[in-house]
Design a protein that fits this description.
2 helices; about 80% helix; about 55 residues; elongated; mainly alpha
Length: about 55
């Protein structure tokens, strides 16, 4: 779960930098891609359920 939160944080940072800095719009698209990967990982983890010990 920590990896998913980390990926979402990275996506937000890349998106902000991509919008704020001129000429770095590609960072916004990379941030969107990272966010979608984190979203997909989160959905698959929720469907599997908690790990069994």
């Amino acid at each position: 779960m920590a990896w998913i939160l980390f990926l979402i944080l990275v996506a937000i940072i890349l998106g902000i930098v991509g919008v704020a800095a001129s000429g770095l719009l590609y960072l916004l698209f990379i941030g969107i891609a990272v966010f979608l990967v984190a979203l997909a990982l989160g959905i698959t983890r929720l469907r599997k359920g908690p790990p069994v010990r």
